[in-house]
Specification:
alpha/beta; binds pyridoxal-5'-phosphate; 400 residues; lyase; 2 domains; disordered C terminus; single chain; pyridoxal phosphate binding; PyrdxlP-dep_Trfase_major; Aspartate Aminotransferase, domain 1; Aspartate Aminotransferase, domain 2
């Protein structure tokens, strides 16, 4: 595949896709959706071929995940891409990452216990914590000069509280796009180990990092704390396979493996892979490195394009440095500090559907998350509409 192939706009209508076909009810006809985190790019050809071949076999019964073919695809990928050696016995199947984290929280905590997250952060973390009657312990990221960092002093204070049982680490971080350095990861682990707290590390965006960045798997950086860490990975963001429901949960510790067998496998009966998910994952991990590299380059270019565009047309917007994920996180408070009004301007006036910053926590209020995994002309259309609405909107706001 060439980079220019990604310029082509594919019509996703009729596929029941949430991003384009299930827009919020107030979105006008013809609204451009750059919200839900999937790509508007077609899957790599080897994945499509593998799916066709599997469909030709015509029967889709129960499928075993614990095979050398499946686990070998996973271990090979992380060895080649990250130099991270995973023991196949430590890999467990889950249809998706968020339910896996929910099972662990349910099993490792009691109602009323605290689980730490770092807002603004992917909002389903909050839902799975509160949904089970647990408490959110927020360790807000620090936003300074258009960049985010962890507040380690606050992190330590909150981990020291006996009510905080563990934390969810988002690495790379959605929505702020941070790729954590080895030093930052070591500091998180040092603090968690000091207070005996576990870490659920969500590394679903690990393959999507910008040219000059490098993702560090936490288990590679801090193997000494492996018994207390669970890493959630998946080919679904990287290869646009979210609908096929296939994720890999890396659980090195025997006690946590027992938790998984009891909770996810015995209690909730999660263990057999879906045959199409497996076929797609094996093809992705074994044969699609080039495709992923090309997509990452295209996203690099999209992000550069957005930065230049915003500098020209919305000079008061602050686009946070995107190190990882394919998401742009932009601070629009200089145009509209009221998040309800900002949403109205985006959806109703601009006709763009984005993820409003405040859904990730109040720290995200006045920000917008823009999904840049789309053809450049779609991104350009979105930015153009935003600029039109905000330039016009800011006049209205100041005159009202
Ligand atoms: C950080 C993060 N974790 C998890 C998910 C969803 O994963 P899954 O569909 O496997 O539950 C997303 C999707 O956007 C995400 O950004």
């Amino acid at each position: 595949m060439k980079k220019s192939d990604l310029d082509r706009v594919y019509d996703r209508s009729g596929t029941q896709c949430i991003k384009w076909e299930h827009l919020p009810p107030d979105a006008p006809e013809g609204a451009l959706p750059l919200w839900v985190a999937d790509m508007d790019f077609p899957c790599a050809q080897p994945i499509l071929d593998a799916l066709h071949e599997r469909i030709e076999q015509k029967i889709f019964g129960y499928t075993e995940y614990d095979t050398p073919a499946c686990k070998g695809a996973v271990t090979g990928w992380f060895r080649r891409r990250f130099g991270w050696e995973i023991d196949p016995a430590h890999i467990f199947f889950s249809p998706a990452v968020i339910p896996a984290m929910a099972y662990f929280i349910d099993a490792l905590t009691a109602p009323g216990d605290g689980v730490l997250i770092q807002r603004p952060v992917y909002y389903p973390f909050t839902n799975i914590i509160l949904g089970g009657g647990r408490r959110v312990v927020n360790n807000p990221l620090r936003y300074r000069g258009g960049a985010y960092e962890m507040d380690f002093g606050d992190l330590e204070r909150k981990l020291a509280d006996p009510g905080t049982k563990g934390m969810i680490l988002c690495s790379p971080h959605n929505p702020v796009g941070r790729v954590w350095s080895e030093e930052e990861l070591r500091e998180v682990v040092r603090l968690c180990s000091r207070y005996g707290r576990w870490i659920l590390a969500d590394e679903i965006h690990c393959d999507l990092v910008r040219r000059e960045e490098r993702h560090h798997p936490i288990l590679k950086v801090c193997p000494e704390y492996a018994d207390h860490i669970v890493v959630c990975t998946a080919p679904t963001k990287s290869f646009n396979l979210a609908g096929l429901q296939v994720s890999n949960i890396i659980i090195p510790g025997a006690a946590f493996q027992e938790v998984w067998r009891r909770q996810a496998e015995a209690r909730f009966a999660i263990s057999t892979d879906n045959p199409l998910g497996f076929a797609a994952m094996a093809a992705a991990y074994n044969r699609c490195e080039d495709w992923l590299d090309t997509v990452n380059e295209y996203i690099d270019d999209n992000i550069r394009f957005a930065r230049e565009y915003l500098e020209k047309r919305l000079p008061k917007a602050v686009m946070v440095k995107a190190q990882g994920t394919y998401l742009i996180w932009v601070d629009l408070r200089a145009y509209c500090a009221d998040s309800k009004r900002l949403r109205e301007l985006m959806v109703r006036r601009a006709g763009v559907v984005l993820d409003e910053g405040d859904i990730f926590g109040k720290e995200g209020s006045g920000f917008e998350r823009i999904n840049a995994a789309c053809p450049r002309c779609v991104l350009a259309g979105c930015l153009e509409r935003m600029a039109g609405a905000l330039n016009e909107g800011s006049l209205l706001i100041s005159s009202s």
